[in-house]
Design goal:
mainly alpha; two-stranded antiparallel ribbon; 67% helix
């Protein structure tokens, strides 16, 4: 009998330990942790994290009380309304299949505002632990991508982002960078030696954005840093601090403008394609062919000028074992790589040009390097120079060369025309995709049909989908919660707000699973958590009041 009592007591203790572990609070923290880990690393587990948060919330005895509190919480309701206005867009749509698909993608806008706003805020320790976990997850993503870059044949640097799209990954890296910098200065949370790890982490994350050639990510970091400096300028009373900030805000943009200007002059030829001083014959007396359809440039020289194909073929046969009609080691036609490489050195595409190449130059062409500077220039510099040239070509001729930047300009042109024709109420939630497919032929776009995509601009997409009134409400929903809770003076919320707002200029952030989850989660997470980090007591009390009593 005594043994039975002991066994029963042990069972009770084990059951009690299980109940203490699997509390609603601990499951909620686990769901948040999984979400932060998977935002930069796994779309599948990202969905699992949301299901954990949803089921944990539904099986709470205080469910009805939570519902009542949610409908009294104006900031959370306004964020939730972003989903609801797309539901309203069903009233004048015709393609309900596409509409339901779009609404399914936007489900995080329905679930996360309800769950996070009706759950008690995190304490400072939990908040910073989760932020540390988020930084670690992004570091893991960069190390995995770096391993792929070093071990695989990667011809497009964007492909090293294997978990989510390179744009969403870059946004996560940008946010993790600012989190790392903040944690470096957080004296109360970490030991001094550990703080330096966050500085190193931040520097690595920024370096990886350069390695990934992410113009979007780097632009987001620079603009967000500019905003933070502006805020600091108005908040500090120290004269020398203000003076230093002013110097930085002037010097960096000027230096950047001068650098871009120098790259522009490196790229753009000094003279037009056809001019009176063009030679007509090679030194061997053969006529040059000037092919204006080859619109590319290398280092300020036209690829299509001074071509004598027979001499070029004969000269290459003497210098290389790779056939002139063959392919370089990157899989590109070697004759085009050769023409571009000769152009980059200011040489003509004839026998003299080929013979002027060094053995190292010939080997570079065989390896697939199309420009002499590709051997020494950073990949980011090459990327910027390519963007400059393709923007110039688009400006002059409207020609699209396949670059994502010029393609976006064409997407925006189609989107603006849809807005003009459906200004007041838009085309409806389900018809936006068909509207774009119908618009590209109408505006005589040069984009191939397989690239008749939406605007890659969330603001234009919302305007085209829901019209003027839907667009104005969307802008209100972005700004109001932060103003209502006085969160634009909070470091984390301000940083994320700027990153999120900028991401919507160059991407349909809310129209992809990774993008909408990123925006909905962090908007709610920073609005309603980490209240001890609020810059004022009034702000903390306001957020607690909204949670406890509604607004």
């Amino acid at each position: 009998m005594q043994e039975k009592d002991v066994f029963t007591f042990t069972e009770r203790m084990n059951a009690m330990n299980v109940r203490q572990i699997f509390t609603h609070r601990n499951i909620y923290l686990f769901g948040l942790s999984l979400m932060l880990v998977t935002l930069p690393t796994s779309r599948y587990l990202m969905s699992i994290a949301q299901f954990i948060l949803i089921f944990n919330w539904l099986f709470d005895r205080k469910l009805l009380s939570k519902f009542r509190n949610f409908f009294k919480n104006k900031p959370a309701l306004v964020i939730f309304s972003v989903f609801f206005i797309h539901v309203i867009g069903l009233l004048w749509t015709t393609d309900f299949q596409y509409a339901l698909k779009d609404l399914r993608i936007k489900l995080p806008l329905l679930a996360l505002p309800i769950i996070i706003s009706t759950t008690p805020p995190l304490g400072k320790k939990d908040f910073f632990n989760l932020m540390t976990l988020y930084v670690a997850a992004n570091l893991f993503g960069t190390f995995f991508s770096l391993g792929k870059l070093l071990t695989d044949d990667v011809f497009n640097i964007r492909n090293i982002s294997v978990f989510i799209s390179h744009i969403r990954f870059a946004l996560n890296l940008a946010l993790a960078f600012f989190v790392s910098i903040y944690l470096f200065f957080q004296n109360d949370y970490l030991f001094p030696r550990l703080r330096w790890l966050f500085l190193v982490s931040g520097l690595w994350l920024f370096t990886f954005l350069i390695l990934m050639e992410s113009v979007t990510g780097l632009s987001v970091v620079l603009i967000t840093a500019f905003v933070l400096l502006m805020v600091y300028f108005f908040r500090t009373r120290n004269f020398w601090h203000k003076f230093t900030v002013v110097v930085i805000l002037i010097v960096i943009p000027v230096a950047l403008a001068l650098y871009l200007r120098s790259l522009y002059h490196e790229v753009i030829p000094d003279e037009p394609f056809y001019h009176e001083r063009l030679d007509k014959l090679t030194r061997q007396g053969n006529p040059y062919f000037h092919d204006s359809t080859l619109t590319g440039v290398e280092n300020g020289h036209w690829v299509g000028q001074y071509i004598e194909m027979d001499e070029l073929k004969a000269g290459w046969k003497k210098r290389s074992r790779i056939p002139f009609e063959g392919f370089d080691e990157k899989g590109n036609p070697v004759r085009f790589t050769l023409m571009r490489y000769l152009t980059s050195k200011g040489l003509r595409k004839d026998a003299d040009g080929v013979m002027a190449l060094t053995d190292d130059d010939v080997r570079a062409v065989e390896m697939g390097f199309a420009n002499k500077d590709h051997l020494i220039e950073s990949s980011l510099k090459r990327r910027i120079k390519t963007v400059i040239w393709e923007l110039e070509i688009y400006r002059q001729t409207g020609c699209l060369s396949g670059n994502s930047v010029t393609q976006r300009l064409e997407f925006w042109r189609a989107g603006l025309q849809i807005i003009r024709e459906n200004f007041w109420i838009g085309v409806g939630t389900g018809d936006i995709d068909n509207a774009f497919k119908a618009m590209y032929p109408k505006i005589k776009s040069q984009l191939p049909p397989e690239q008749w995509w939406r605007t890659h601009n969330q603001y234009l997409t919302v305007f085209a989908t829901l019209g003027l009134f839907g667009f104005l409400w969307f802008i209100f929903a972005l700004i109001y919660p932060g103003l209502k809770l006085n969160m634009f003076s909070n470091y984390f919320y301000l940083v994320f707000f700027v990153i999120g707002a900028l991401s919507m200029i160059t991407g349909d952030t809310l129209d992809t699973q990774a993008g909408v989850t990123f925006w909905a989660f962090f908007t709610m997470f920073f609005l309603f958590n980490g209240e001890e980090n609020a810059p004022s007591r009034n702000q903390k009390q306001l957020r607690l009041k909204i949670f406890q009593h509604g607004q």
